[in-house]
Amino acid sequence: MAFVFRSRSKEEKAPAAQAPVTDSKQPRDPQAPKGRPTPKRAMAQSQRRSVTNTPTSRKEAAKRQRDERRTQMAKQREALASGDERFLPARDKGPVRKFARDFVDSRFCVAEFFLPIAVLILIMSIVQIPQLQNISLLLWLVVIVLIVVDSVATAFRLKKRLNERFPGENKKGAVAYALMRTLQMRRLRLPKPQVKRGERP
Questions:
Q1: Is the terminal CB of the chain with fewer CB neighbours within 10 Å at N or C?
Q2: Distance, CA of 186 to CA of 198 (rounded, Å)
Q3: Cβ(93)–Cβ(85) below 8 Å
Q4: What does the alpha-carbon distance between residue 127 and residue 42 come to, in Å, rounded to a whole number?
Q5: Per mean pLDDT, which range of 50-54, 64-68, 149-153 is the poorest?
Q6: Res. 75 pLDDT band, cuts 50 70 90
Q7: Residue 51 confidence (pLDDT)
Q8: Quick one: which H or E segment has residue 40?
Q9: Given this model, what pLDDT does residue 43 score?
């Protein structure tokens, strides 16, 4: 009986001893910090870049803000010349404002000739000739009336076109924006005109 018990216990222990030992742990990267995986190269580079770009003093931060502001202003000047919507000032952005600009730039407006006419009237009023002075006064009144009538007609047409083209969008201030543009000579307008005279926007 002792022989049976002894042989059975040896047979039960043998498979346990012969079972292969498996290691549940995966091999660790020798370059990885202990207990965590190796960071990806892009993440490591972004972390180094953020550390490098962080200003170390208030003076450096102020200098960086001035440089960014200067760069932004340069982009805005280029956008005003080219009409690039991405970098335009807030008052000029959006399809409504662009349509208002194109509407004004596509037609002749009396108000855009106000400055040269005003200079001419001033010269005529200075000349010591009563007839010219009377003509300058009459011409001044005619120009004012024409500007008012043309501005009212422009505002009415533009408002109608905006309601047709942009029924669900915010059009607040677009008409006043366009009327202020009519007071500038075409070649001095900013953003630069993107349509020709007579071209329907």
A1: N
A2: 14
A3: yes
A4: 76
A5: 50-54
A6: confident
A7: 47
A8: none
A9: 64
Grouping H, G, I as helix, E, B as strand and the rest as coil, residue 23 is coil
Give the model confidence (pLDDT) of 87-130 as tens digits.
888 899 999 999 999 999 999 999 999 999 999 999 998 988 89
- Orientation angle between helical segments 130-165 and 114-126, nearest 10 degrees: 170
User: Tokens 């004012």 — which residue?
Assistant: 144
Residue for token digits 């329907």? 200
Both structure tokens of 177: 């924006």
* pTM reported for the whole predicted model: 0.65
CB 105 within 8 A of CB 186: yes
Exposed/middle/buried for residue 161 (C-beta within 10 Å: 0-12, 13-18, 19+) = middle
Between helices 174-182 and 130-165, what is the axis angle to 10°? 150
Largest CA distance in the chain: 150
What are the structure tokens assigned to 196, written together?
Answer: 């020709």
How far is 186 from 175, CA to CA, in rounded Å?
Answer: 18
pLDDT(46) > 80: no
Nearby residues of 99 by Cβ (< 8 Å), 6 or more positions away: 161, 162, 165, 166, 174, 201
Peptide bond connecting 191 to the previous residue in cis, omega within 30 degrees of 0: yes
Task: Give the whole-angstrom CA distance, residue 117 versus residue 136.
Answer: 10
Mark out the alpha helices in 54-129 (DSSP H runs). 58-82, 95-105, 114-126
